[in-house]
Amino acid sequence: MGTSDPGTLNREAMKDLREAQSMLFDKASTYTKLIFGLAYGGFFAFWSGTKQYLTPKQLVWSALLVTVSLMLFVLFEVFNAAILSHMAIRFAKSTNVPVADLPASLLDFQRSSARLTKALAVAWYPTFFLSLSSGLVGVAIVLRGWVHWLYTTK
Question: Is the pLDDT of residue 9 over 80?
Answer without folding.
Answer: no
